[in-house]
From TrEMBL:
It catalyses: D-glucose 6-phosphate + NADP(+) = 6-phospho-D-glucono-1,5-lactone + NADPH + H(+). Coiled coil: none annotated. Its EC number is 1.1.1.49. Catalyzes the rate-limiting step of the oxidative pentose-phosphate pathway, which represents a route for the dissimilation of carbohydrates besides glycolysis. Transmembrane segments: none annotated. Belongs to the glucose-6-phosphate dehydrogenase family. This is Glucose-6-phosphate 1-dehydrogenase.
Length: 491
């Protein structure tokens, strides 16, 4: 509405996430004319900085995503003029009162809506929320707070954080971000499944043999070892990003596309799962490796990581959903850092069952598994959805081939894919909660992983070491084999 204004305060403005993701996403939204007419952006952090210095810092990471447009630098200037800085302590009500005064100057007599993005460590979330809600919340519009993971490190600490936040905010004001939910292909999952007759009826144990959720990076924790060591790959990727994808993938049909209906179904599916068992998990940690004259450092070579750290940088796990749709179907997750370069990927693989009484059985030799259909949703990089099918190789003989029906986004769509943070920030401004995590979803997610995490830590279970740049621990293959699963081929 033209009479209202939105003030976005990025708390922790000089941090990495703010610089790399949040400011560029806000600019992209501005560039695409998606921000409201009246908006102001404030960076808030402890260090002293002028508005000009903030603008200079921000300008370094802004890019023109759609570089064909000529007026990009003009747009950047306009955007930067609407960015300001306020220096303050995170636990000082007085400093937030000063921020409030500045915000009011920009808002004038309009209805003032305020969004706070907490791009700060979780141990100061509550200080900021307390000060911001008491001293800098809107008097005549909405106030919303976006929080980034980690939302605690187990069920208890997460519940304590939720209780703390709810002293100052109601659930509707809290936007818990999981940026994987903002990724184009993750959002498309429901469209693919619920609007295509060729998929929807197949989405169950009757036709699906297993589902694989794979996250693999070809670089280590470079520079983030200190943070990472307190969490590990299970908390960093599995308990949130991969589990959220699993919930969206496996949920029952929601009554509608409304946020509450979707989140109700996600919670149900999470609650139908058994907490992870140690015997269904493999953990690994990368070690230094020399290749082609270059030595790649191991995880514990990072100076901020204790030499005897047993924190996993790789994990594979088998999960099961105890409901009528998915009974007995293994959902395998695999997440790792410092893996093979060809494995820099996030993807979902759905392996279908064999065709009963397959007439062409003989053409596949003994390896019938190779002949089952597989649907691959490549979330990144180079977004694609493809279906592996069996096909006759043209010619007079009868030889079969595995081929792909391929939807390659770059070839099919000329428009650039927005960054996940763009969509999520826009949704938060518009009050759309569909892609944010509700507190009961979070509780359910933690209940699945907390007993395992405690056991790993109490027993200090040693991860299997794998060389930097390798395919990861061999244990992951044994785990899959235990459930008659073979990890999908490389994309
Ligand atoms: C973050 C994790 O949530 O996601 C990082 O903390 C990881 O460890 C990152 O590198 C991956 O995000 P993306 O969008 O680059 O796949």
């Amino acid at each position: 509405n033209n009479d209202s204004t939105v003030s976005i305060t990025v708390v922790g403005a000089s941090g990495d996430l703010a610089k790399k993701k949040i400011f560029p996403a806000l600019f992209a939204l501005y560039y695409e004319d998606c921000l409201p007419k009246h908006f102001t952006i404030f960076g808030y952090a402890r260090s002293k900085m002028t508005d000009a210095e903030l603008r200079n810092m921000v300008s370094k990471t802004l890019t023109c995503r759609i570089d064909k447009r000529e007026n990009c630098s003009e747009k950047m200037e306009e955007f930067l003029e609407r960015c300001f800085y306020h220096s303050g302590q995170y636990d000082s009500e007085g400093h937030f009162i000063d921020l409030d005064k500045k915000l009011k100057q920009h808002e004038g007599s309009r209805v003032s809506n305020r969004l706070f993005y907490l791009s700060i460590p979780p141990n100061i979330f509550l200080d900021v929320v307390k000060c911001a809600s008491k001293s800098a919340s809107s008097v005549n519009g909405w106030t919303r707070v976006i929080v980034e993971k980690p939302f605690g490190r187990d069920s208890e600490s997460s519940a304590a954080l939720t209780r703390g936040l709810k002293q100052y905010l109601v659930e509707d004001q809290i936007f818990r971000i999981d940026h994987y939910l903002g990724k184009e292909l993750v959002e498309n999952l429901s469209v693919l499944r619920f609007s295509n007759l060729v998929f929807e009826p197949l989405w169950s144990r009757q036709y699906i043999r297993n589902v694989q959720l794979i996250f693999s990076e070809d670089f280590g924790t470079e520079g983030r070892g200190g943070y990472f060591d307190g969490y590990g790959i299970i908390r960093d990727i599995m308990q949130n990003h991969l589990l959220q994808i699993l919930a969206l993938f496996a949920m029952e049909t929601p009554i509608s596309l409304e946020a509450e209906d979707i989140r109700n179904e996600k919670v149900k599916v999470l609650r139908s799962m058994k907490p992870l068992q140690l015997e269904d998990v493999v953990i690994g940690q990368y070690k230094s490796h020399t290749k082609g004259g270059t030595t790649y450092p191991g995880y514990i070579d990072d100076k901020t990581v204790p030499k005897d750290s047993v924190t996993p940088t790789f994990a594979a796990a088998a999960l099961f959903i105890n409901n009528a749709r998915w009974d007995g179907v293994p959902f395998l997750m695999k997440a790792g850092k410092a893996l093979h370069t060809k494995r820099y990927v996030a993807e979902i693989r759905v392996q279908f069952r064999h065709v009963p009484g397959n007439l062409y059985k003989g053409s596949f030799g003994t390896d019938l598994d190779r002949a089952t259909n597989e649907l691959v949703i490549r979330v990144q990089p180079d977004e694609a959805i493809y279906l592996k099918i069996n096909n006759k190789i043209p010619g007079l003989g009868m030889r079969l081939d595995r081929s792909n029906l391929n939807l390659h986004y770059a070839a099919r769509y000329s428009k650039e894919i927005p960054d996940a943070y763009e969509r999520l920030l826009l949704d938060a401004i518009e009050g759309e909660r569909r892609l944010f995590i509700r507190s009961d979803e979070l509780d359910a997610a933690w209940s699945l992983f907390t007993p395992l995490l405690k056991e790993l830590e109490e027993k200090r279970i040693a991860p299997e070491l794998y060389p930097y740049g390798s395919r990861g621990p061999v244990g992951a293959h044994y785990l899959a084999a235990k459930y008659n699963v073979r990890w999908g081929d490389l994309s």
